[in-house]
Design goal:
With 397 residues, the protein is mainly alpha-helical. It has 15 helices and no strands. Helix 9 runs antiparallel to helix 13, helix 9 runs parallel beside helix 14 and helix 12 runs antiparallel to helix 15.
C-alpha cells in the first residue's frame, strides 16, 4: 500500500455527499436511540428486551446485507437501491412514535435496519469507486466522522426535545423524520455514480468462494470480536442504572445521554484519525487490532459495576475510541484486500458478519446481565475482544 500523493484529490462530491448523508441519517436514528431505553422502560420492557431488539434487528439485517452485496456487483446502477434503503430507515424510525408495546418497537427497528442492510454495500462500493486506494483510510474515516457528527447531534437534539416537549418521547420520534428524509435528498443530489462495465453473472455461493483468502481470514477476526461487541445502547442503560442511586431516575437518564454524546465525540475523532493514520502505515491491521484491544479494556472496566461518574466517562470515551476505529478500519481493510469488481460482495459479507456478531453479542450480553451480573456479561465481551485483536494481528496479505 502506497500513500496517496498530496495532489491526488480524494475529498470529492461523492465522498462529501456520502458523508453528509451519513450525518443526517445518523442524526435521525441516534436521536431515537438516545431515548429508546427510557421509552422501553415506560412501556414495561427491560434490558433483555433492549438487547433482543438491537440484536434481532442486526441479525435479520445480515441476510439483507448479504443479498444486497451480491446484487450490487451485478447492477448497472447502485444509487437507486441506496436511496430506497435510506427512505425505509427514516420512515421506520419515525414509526416508533406510534408504538404501544415492545413488539411495535421491535418491528420498527427491524424494518429500519433492513433498510440499512439494503443500502450499506452499495453505498460503500460507490464511495470506494470514487477514491484512490491509497486514500481508503481517509475516505472511509471521513464517512465515519460525518456519521458520528450526526450521532453527536442526535443525543443533544433528544435532550433539547425532551425539555421543550415535556419529556414526550413520541414527539422526539416524530422529529427524526426531518433529518432522515434530508439524508435521502442529499444522497440523490450529490453522490456521483461511476459507469460500471457489464459483469458476468455468477451464483451467490460462487461469489463468496471467489473472495480472497486474506479477506476471509479477516472476517474470522471481525466475527470473533463482533460476538463480544454489544450494542452501545446497553451502555446507556448501564449508566442510567449506575447513576440512579445518587442522582435519581430523571437526572440519571439525562447524564446517561450526556455520556453517550461524549462517546460519540470521541467516536467521530477516532474514525478519521485512525483512518488517516492507516493510510501512512505499512499495514492497516495494527490500527484495527489496537482498536479491538481498547474494546477489551472498556469491557473490563464495565465489570467493576462502577457508580462513579468519572469512571463511567472514561468507559464511554474508550468505547467511542474503539468504535470509530473499528468502523473506519474494517471497511478500509476490506476495500484493500478485495478487487473493486467484488467490493459489493465484500462489503455485504463484512456487514453480515458484523450483524451476526451484533445479534450474538447484544442478545447474549443482555441475557447474561439479566440472568447473572455485569461481571459475567462484560467479562465474556472482554475475552472475545482480545481474541479478535490477536486474529487481526496474524493477518497476512
Amino acid at each position: 500500500m502506497e500513500p496517496t500523493p498530496a495532489k491526488t484529490p480524494w475529498l470529492n462530491r461523492t465522498v462529501l455527499g456520502v458523508g453528509l448523508t451519513s450525518l443526517f441519517s445518523d442524526w435521525s436514528h441516534e436521536t431515537a436511540t438516545a431515548v429508546l431505553p427510557a421509552f422501553l422502560a415506560i412501556i414495561g420492557a427491560g434490558p433483555a428486551w433492549l438487547g433482543a431488539i438491537e440484536g434481532i434487528s442486526d441479525g435479520l439485517s445480515s441476510f439483507t446485507k448479504l443479498w444486497a452485496g451480491h446484487l450490487t456487483d451485478r447492477l448497472q446502477k447502485r444509487k437507486p437501491l441506496v436511496i430506497f434503503g435510506y427512505a425505509v430507515t427514516a420512515l421506520a424510525t419515525g414509526s416508533f412514535a406510534f408504538a404501544t408495546q415492545a413488539y411495535d418497537v421491535l418491528f420498527g427497528r427491524v424494518l429500519a435496519w433492513l433498510g440499512r442492510g439494503v443500502r450499506s454495500p452499495s453505498k460503500k462500493a460507490l464511495l470506494a469507486a470514487d477514491v484512490p486506494p491509497g486514500a481508503y483510510g481517509r475516505a472511509f474515516g471521513f464517512e465515519r466522522l460525518m456519521d458520528t457528527v450526526g450521532a453527536i447531534a442526535g443525543p443533544l437534539t433528544a435532550l433539547w426535545l425532551l425539555n421543550v416537549t415535556g419529556h414526550s418521547y413520541r414527539k422526539v420520534f416524530l422529529y427524526t423524520l426531518i433529518p432522515g428524509l434530508l439524508a435521502v435528498a442529499i444522497f440523490a443530489l450529490l453522490v456521483r455514480e461511476r459507469p460500471i462495465a457489464a459483469k458476468a453473472r455468477q451464483s451467490f455461493l460462487t461469489g463468496l468462494r471467489t473472495l480472497p483468502v486474506s479477506f476471509r481470514r479477516m472476517l474470522l477476526g471481525v466475527g470473533v470480536f463482533g460476538a463480544g461487541d454489544f450494542s452501545h445502547t446497553l451502555l446507556i442503560l448501564y449508566a442510567s442504572r449506575a447513576l440512579t442511586p445518587a442522582h435519581g431516575p430523571a437526572r440519571a437518564a439525562s447524564l446517561a445521554v450526556a455520556l453517550y454524546t461524549l462517546h460519540n465525540i470521541f467516536n467521530a475523532g477516532s474514525a478519521y484519525l485512525s483512518g488517516w493514520l492507516s493510510d501512512f502505515l505499512p499495514q492497516r491491521k495494527y490500527v484495527l487490532a489496537a482498536g479491538y484491544a481498547v474494546a477489551g479494556i472498556a469491557a473490563i472496566l464495565l465489570c467493576t459495576g462502577t457508580q462513579s461518574l468519572v469512571l463511567l466517562a472514561v468507559i464511554f470515551i474508550l468505547a467511542g475510541l474503539y468504535k470509530g476505529t473499528e468502523d473506519a478500519l474494517e471497511d478500509s481493510l476490506a476495500a484493500e484486500f478485495v478487487p473493486k469488481e467484488q467490493h459489493g460482495m465484500a462489503f455485504g459479507t463484512l456487514a453480515a458478519v458484523n450483524a451476526v456478531g451484533d445479534l450474538i453479542s447484544s442478545v447474549t450480553v443482555g441475557a447474561l446481565w439479566s440472568a447473572f451480573n455485569v461481571q459475567t456479561a462484560f467479562g465474556a465481551s472482554a475475552f472475545l475482544s482480545f481474541v479478535g485483536a490477536l486474529l487481526i494481528l496474524r493477518l497476512r496479505r
